């Protein structure tokens, strides 16, 4: 039988050339940022809950970046696993100019000036309480924390960071850090705000990687409630007014609607972070042979792009770049 159908969407899918013309979303290595973990050790150390990801030595970091650049990934985000003995309640290691992150930035910029170096600003790797801010009487202090974040941002800028990325969710930190950087002449250093960051269960493998789990309570008094969407627009309006250059939504896959919402409400570039738990679940299924790793990972990244992300932070960046190159 033949249906009388003047309109048949399948005609635009009938061969590769037509599918190519109809394709609305493009995913390439230029959209990807590779987050990297550092530690003081001389050897790279695999992270149990993130197979294929390592706490890198300084030398390991340089070799990782060298490999990634060859594969077309040009942007890196640094996260330090700080030695337990250097963690204090005032988080002062966060702005030590001889600390792990400033040393890594200098080494990276010296060997690969073309690499885009993004650094994370927050206190959780440095703070003996495992919180992103200073703690007093069981409360996370806002304004006192912001003062330290400014010093941390200046420390990264002095070492040569291209982009500073506050992930702490304190109120007012974007404007305060912008002011602090500008007052010291760092007007060219960009601010990528973790603008819409949820109190998510998908961060646990990252906290294993840095040994940075909160020592008490949770992060719900500063990270957002996963039930909320309108609140994302409040955070967005503030970060825009305070001078953010790029705004991030995090995590990515469980929050695709929020990526779309932010995309439709700002002219700024939008970043999304496919976080450690998203990596872990895809990786675990792939290692068990339950999912086809290449096809599912690329589909997940394409979905994040389609939702409206201009750039994606993903631990799959190098693998994805290789797969995209192979076609
Ligand atoms: C902390 C920070 C976290 C991540 C990035 N920066 C964890 C947290 O907020 O507890 C998570 C990244 C990931 O899970 O991949 N400032």
Q: What would the keywords be for this entry?
A:
alpha/beta; 11 helices; eight-stranded parallel barrel; 327 residues; binds ligand PBG
What does this protein look like?
It contains eleven helices and twelve strands. The protein has 327 residues and is of the alpha/beta class. It has one domain: TIM Barrel, CATH 3.20.20.70. Strands 1-4-5-8-9-10-11-12 form an eight-stranded parallel barrel, surrounded by nine helices. It has a two-stranded antiparallel ribbon with strand order 6-7. It is globular, with a radius of gyration of 20 Å. The two termini are 38 Å apart. The model has no long low-confidence stretch (mean pLDDT 97).
Topology:
Blueprint: H1 16-22, E1 32-38, E2 45-46, E3 54-56, H2 58-70, E4 75-80, H3 100-111, E5 116-121, E6 135-136, E7 139-140, H4 143-159, E8 163-166, H5 173-183, E9 190-197, H6 204-210, H7 230-242, E10 246-250, H8 256-264, E11 270-274, H9 276-287, H10 293-307, E12 311-314, H11 317-326
Parallel strand pairs: 1-3, 1-4, 1-12, 4-5, 5-8, 8-9, 9-10, 10-11, 11-12
Antiparallel strand pairs: 2-3, 6-7
Helix pairs in contact: 2-3, 3-4, 4-5, 8-10
Write down the CATH topology. Answer: TIM Barrel
Output the structural class: alpha/beta
Record the strand order, biggest sheet: 1-4-5-8-9-10-11-12
Counting DSSP E segments of at least 2 residues, the number of strands comes to: 12
Radius of gyration: 20 Å
Low-confidence region ranges: none
Characterize the overall form: globular
Number of helices: 11
The CATH fourth-level homologous superfamily? Aldolase class I
Q: Main β-sheet, in a few words?
A: 8 strands, parallel, barrel
CATH second-level architecture: Alpha-Beta Barrel
Bound ligands, each once: ligand PBG
């Amino acid at each position: 039988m033949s249906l009388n159908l003047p309109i048949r969407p399948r005609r635009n899918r009938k061969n590769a050339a037509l599918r190519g013309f109809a394709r609305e979303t493009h995913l390439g290595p230029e959209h990807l940022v590779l987050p990297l973990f550092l530690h003081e050790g001389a050897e790279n150390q695999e992270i149990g809950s993130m197979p294929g990801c390592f706490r890198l030595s300084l030398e390991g970091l340089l070799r990782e970046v060298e490999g990634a650049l060859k594969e077309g990934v040009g942007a890196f985000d640094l996260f330090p696993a700080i030695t337990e003995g250097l963690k204090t309640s005032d988080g002062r290691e966060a702005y030590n100019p001889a600390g792990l992150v400033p040393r890594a930035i200098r080494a990276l910029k010296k060997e690969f000036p073309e690499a885009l170096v993004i650094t994370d600003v927050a206190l959780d790797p440095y703070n003996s309480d495992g919180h992103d801010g200073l703690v007093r009487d069981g409360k996370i202090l806002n304004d006192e924390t912001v003062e330290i974040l400014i010093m941390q941002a200046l420390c990264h800028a002095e070492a040569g960071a291209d982009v500073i990325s506050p992930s702490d969710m304190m109120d007012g930190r974007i404007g305060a850090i912008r002011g602090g950087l500008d007052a010291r002449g760092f007007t060219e250093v960009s601010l990528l705000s973790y603008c819409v960051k949820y109190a998510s269960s998908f961060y646990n493998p990252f906290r294993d990687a840095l040994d940075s789990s909160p020592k008490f309570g949770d992060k719900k008094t500063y990270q957002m409630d996963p039930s909320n969407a309108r609140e994302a627009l409040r955070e967005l309006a503030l970060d825009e007014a305070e001078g953010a250059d790029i705004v991030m939504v995090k995590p990515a896959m469980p929050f695709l609607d929020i990526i779309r919402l932010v995309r439709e409400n700002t002219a700024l570039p939008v970043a999304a972070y496919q976080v450690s738990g998203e990596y872990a679940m895809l990786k675990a299924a792939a290692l068990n042979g339950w999912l086809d790793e290449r096809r599912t990972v690329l589909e997940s990244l394409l979905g994040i792009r389609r939702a409206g992300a201009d750039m994606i932070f993903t631990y799959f960046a190098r693998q994805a770049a290789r797969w995209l190159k192979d076609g």
